[in-house]
Amino acid sequence: MMLAKVVGHVVATQKCDELRGSNLLLISKLDDDLQPIKDHTWAAIDNVGAGMHDIVLVEEYLALNKDRYKAMSVIAIVEQVFRDR
């Protein structure tokens, strides 16, 4: 799992049956200071109703064709992050 920030939406007019009814978000992985990391951006399936600029918890899992593809799924909207420095 990783922390990411919602930076956009993905619009798909046609989706496979498994994704129908799902929203797709553009997410960027966050560094230790909760800042987006350049060139670490993916599309993710939104399972929790996240919106623009939300910090989210994302998991990576094997997707429809487990031998060829991986998918990202938003599984939580993060309220706060506490860290011992």
From TrEMBL:
<dbReference type="GO" id="GO:0031469">
    <property type="term" value="C:bacterial microcompartment"/>
</dbReference>
<dbReference type="InterPro" id="IPR004992">
    <property type="entry name" value="EutN_CcmL"/>
</dbReference>
<protein>
    <submittedName>
        <fullName>Ethanolamine utilization protein EutN</fullName>
    </submittedName>
</protein>
<dbReference type="Pfam" id="PF03319">
    <property type="entry name" value="EutN_CcmL"/>
</dbReference>
<comment type="similarity">
    <text>Belongs to the CcmL/EutN family.</text>
</comment>
<keyword id="KW-1283">Bacterial microcompartment</keyword>
<dbReference type="InterPro" id="IPR036677">
    <property type="entry name" value="EutN_CcmL_sf"/>
</dbReference>
